[in-house]
Amino acid sequence: MHDRPLAKTAAGLLSVGVLLAGCATGDAEPAAAPTTSTNGTSADSEEHEGHEHHGGHGDHGGHEHHDHAPDGGPPPAGITEAAAATYPVGTEVLLRADHMPGMDGVTGTVVGAFDTTAYSVSYTPTTGGSPVEDHKWVVQEELRDAGPDRLPAGAEVVLDATHMSGMQGATATIDSSTDETTYMVDFEADGMAMVNHKWVVESEMEPAA
Predict the structure, then answer these.
(1) Are strands 80-81 and 92-95 parallel, antiparallel or unpaired?
(2) Which of 40, 65, 200, 208 has the fewest Cβ atoms surrounding its Cβ within 10 A?
(3) What whole-number percentage of the chain has pLDDT above 70?
(4) pLDDT at 70
(5) Whole-number pLDDT of residue 66
(6) How confident is the model at residue 28 (pLDDT cuts 50, 70, 90)?
(7) 8 A C-beta contact, residue 116 and residue 85
């Protein structure tokens, strides 16, 4: 006789528990999906990769205009040695050129003196990167199929020089030129020994003290 009320009470409590569980489940919100860009990568990943890319590009651009080879190698074929150079081979000179950091004001030794035309040129390296402007110097014998005559400013030429990476084979525009005696020199700048550095023209040199 007393078992039936207890059974009804237990059944009622079970029904309330099920109802409350159902309400709790209905109120829960699904977890937010990660944001993706149109190429399928996450936005956070894309932003991080972008910062890395710009940093690397900046590092490269900071030194690409000064990567002269430590050994400039022999003079180009066909160039004429100067018969009466102001600074003969073996002469110590004071350099007044700023072709690369630490060069201006250092003492150098002349290792070659030549009668030629030296050109300042602007070009984009074949290896990519930023354009190089007003590069000093490239001589007549380092211009592909240029012939013997001095070329005017604005002329377009192809470089056959290897002073810097990406230079050989690059198309360049002549900015200016000079027929001063042109020299190869040995010197040390910023702790780096430069051998057969090409080129320094006579107005960029002074007698060593």
Answers:
(1) unpaired
(2) 40
(3) 68
(4) 86
(5) 56
(6) very low
(7) no
Q: What are phi and psi of 122, to 5 degrees?
A: -120, 140
Residue 117: C-alpha distances to residues 22, 148, 167 (Å): 92, 9, 19
Residue 123 · residue 167 · CB < 8 Å: yes
Count of Cβ atoms closer than 10 Å to residue 172 Cβ: 23
110 Cβ contact partners less than 8 Å away, ≥ 6 residues apart: 85, 87, 88, 89, 90, 91, 92, 93, 183, 184, 185
- Does residue 42 or residue 90 have the better pLDDT? 90
Residue 35: strand, helix, or coil: coil
pLDDT at 44 over 60: no
Tokens of 148: 């013997």
Q: Which helix (H) or strand (E) holds 31?
A: none
In sequence order, what are the beta bridge partners of 183?
A: 113, 200
Domain 65-207 CATH superfamily: Domain of unknown function DUF1541 (2.30.30.1210)
Query: Length of the chain, please?
Result: 209
pTM (2 decimals)?
A: 0.69
More confidently predicted of 84 and 8: 84
Q: How far from 192 is each of 81, 96, 166, 182, 197, CA to CA, in Å?
A: 27, 18, 21, 22, 12
